[in-house]
């Protein structure tokens, strides 16, 4: 499924990542824990193929979904368009169903600016889960949310994950998120940062 | 809002009134003709077909210069905004052109290319080009890298990225380049015609000027101003509203 074997990643002459090995089976879930600035986003960008400038090998399935720290919506497109542009194979009915599931059933023709912050987040979630991806990558999408919204988003994400049966790679600095999503926790730490699997894994 | 429109109208009326009053006080139609005689002159020029003919010629030059400057300037500006190396190469030229007086460019174009249509259109285009480049470059620089990542992660085809991300993100900058560019073009196009073309509003102003016919000068100028305000109202403003429609919902 997913095979990561990163040996080094540099920004300029500064080594950010050291040895990071990761192997996931289909439907496996993992949370990479680490403090801010340690290199979590960097690693996730490498895994997703957004960043190809590193030492090592990554084998990642083609069909992936990526959720960023911010909602990252197209402000100039409606909710429907925000979903369908990224999932051209999905029908409008499919999009409507997904919008209903995240509680935006009546907002299809709204622009993101007309939504509340929580609704924008849920739209981003809908975009991530709209069509079945082999692997889902989450880059701290629940950080900087107030506790109530965070819980709501986590519950929704878990439901959608259970439905989709996709592989999950999730990075965060908050271990409780990993518990909610029922994922195995691994740690990214050190300078340069390396991946530490706990004894309980594999 | 309504109130504001009314104030604008009254203010415009006051200007006309002041002009009328001044022309009566001065009582010299050679120096300051009344609004009525200017409008009358416009009517005459319209009846002979002169006004439309020259307006059309000027319009043709504006259209060419505008399109050329927007396309070339948009492309170059975007390229410079996305590529620091290209920017380093082109920027010094840009600064020189930005600071070159319009008149110098016009005269040089005529001298080097000749007194023809190509030189005229090129002179207008070159005057507008640096402005478009700077504005579009600013837009390209402020474009979001997160949306690019999003497009890349979902493997969006290039054409879709252009249509749904790059162009909409750039649109406010394109609109402002179009608006400031247009208002610059129609000041310069008259000078270009004045100096070296046989037709167009600028040429007619030259003719009227050389026979010291102030009524004629005013008739041509005001028709042109009126025409431009019409374009502004009927094309540019609706376009701007369309381009920013998603914002007004907020
Ligand atoms: N484009 C870049 N250029 C230079 N340094 C970068 C770049 N992106 C990230 N870094 C550095 O790499 C380190 C890890 O960043 P990041 O992966 O974003 O951390 P995290 O996501 O864990 O908070 C930080 O020290 C950051 O300053
Ligand atoms: Mg990060």
Itemize the secondary structure elements and their pairings.
The complex is a heterodimer of chains A (202) and B (250).
Chain A: E1 2-11, E2 14-17, E3 20-24, E4 29-33, H1 40-48, E5 55-59, E6 64-67, H2 79-84, H3 92-101, H4 117-129, E7 135-139, H5 147-164, E8 167-172, H6 175-180, E9 184-189, E10 194-197
Chain B: H1 2-26, H2 35-48, H3 50-82, H4 84-99, H5 102-113, H6 117-141, H7 145-153, H8 158-196, H9 201-210, H10 214-243, H11 245-248
Helix pairs in contact in B: 2-10, 3-4, 3-6, 3-8, 3-9, 4-6, 5-6, 5-8, 6-8, 8-9, 8-10, 9-10
The complex binds adenosine-5'-diphosphate and magnesium ion (MG).
Q: How many E-type strands of chain B?
A: 0
Which structural class do you get from the secondary structure elements of chain A? Answer: alpha/beta
Unreliably modeled segments of chain A? none
Approximate helicity band of chain A: 25-40%
Kindly provide the name of the CATH class of chain B.
Mainly Alpha
CATH architecture label of chain B? Orthogonal Bundle
What gyration radius of chain B follows from the Cα positions, in whole Å?
22 Å
Number of helices of chain A: 6
- The CATH class of chain A is identified as Alpha Beta
**CA distance, first residue to last residue of chain A:** 15 Å
Reported by name, the CATH topology of chain A is: Rossmann fold
Whole-number mean pLDDT of chain B: 92
């Amino acid at each position: 499924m997913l095979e990561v074997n990163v040996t080094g990643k540099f920004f300029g002459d500064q080594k950010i990542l050291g040895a990071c090995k990761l192997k996931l089976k289909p439907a496996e879930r993992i949370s990479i824990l680490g403090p801010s600035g340690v290199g979590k986003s960097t690693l996730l960008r490498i895994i997703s193929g957004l960043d190809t400038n590193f030492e090592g090998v990554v084998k990642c399935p083609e069909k992936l979904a990526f959720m960023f720290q911010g909602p990252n919506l197209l402000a100039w497109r409606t909710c429907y368009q925000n979903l369908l542009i990224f999932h051209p194979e999905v029908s409008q009915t499919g999009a409507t169903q997904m919008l209903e599931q995240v509680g935006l059933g009546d907002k299809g023709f709204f622009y993101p600016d007309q939504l509340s912050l929580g609704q924008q987040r849920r739209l981003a979630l809908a975009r991530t889960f709209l069509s079945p991806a082999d692997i889902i990558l989450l880059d701290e999408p629940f950080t900087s949310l107030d506790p109530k919204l965070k819980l709501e988003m986590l519950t929704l994400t878990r439901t959608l994950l259970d439905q989709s049966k996709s592989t999950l790679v999730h990075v965060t600095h908050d271990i409780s998120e990993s518990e909610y999503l029922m994922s195995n926790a691994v740690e990214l730490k050190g300078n340069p940062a390396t991946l530490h699997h706990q004894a309980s894994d594999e | 809002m309504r109130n504001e429109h009314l104030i604008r109208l009254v203010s415009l009326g006051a200007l006309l009134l002041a002009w009328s009053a001044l022309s009566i006080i001065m009582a010299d139609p050679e120096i300051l003709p009344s609004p009525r005689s200017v409008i009358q002159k416009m009517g005459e020029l319209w009846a002979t077909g002169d006004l439309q003919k020259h307006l059309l010629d000027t319009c043709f030059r504006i259209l060419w210069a505008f399109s050329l400057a927007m396309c070339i300037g948009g492309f170059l500006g975007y390229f410079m905004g996305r590529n620091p190396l290209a920017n380093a190469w082109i920027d010094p030229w840009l600064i020189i052109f930005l600071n070159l007086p319009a008149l110098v460019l016009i005269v040089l174009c005529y001298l080097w290319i000749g007194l023809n249509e190509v030189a005229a259109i090129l002179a207008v285009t070159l005057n507008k080009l640096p402005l478009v480049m700077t504005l579009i470059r600013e837009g390209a620089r402020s474009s979001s890298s997160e949306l690019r990542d999003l497009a890349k992660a979902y493997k969006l085809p290039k054409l879709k990225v252009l249509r749904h991300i790059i162009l909409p993100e750039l649109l406010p900058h394109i609109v402002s380049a179009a608006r400031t560019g247009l208002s610059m073009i129609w000041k310069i196009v008259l000078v270009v015609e004045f100096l070296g073309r046989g037709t167009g509003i600028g040429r007619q102003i030259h003719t009227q000027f050389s026979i010291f016919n102030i009524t004629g000068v005013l008739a041509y100028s005001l028709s042109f101003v009126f025409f431009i305000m019409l374009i502004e109202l009927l094309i540019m403003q609706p376009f701007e509203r369309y381009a920013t429609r998603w914002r007004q919902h907020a």
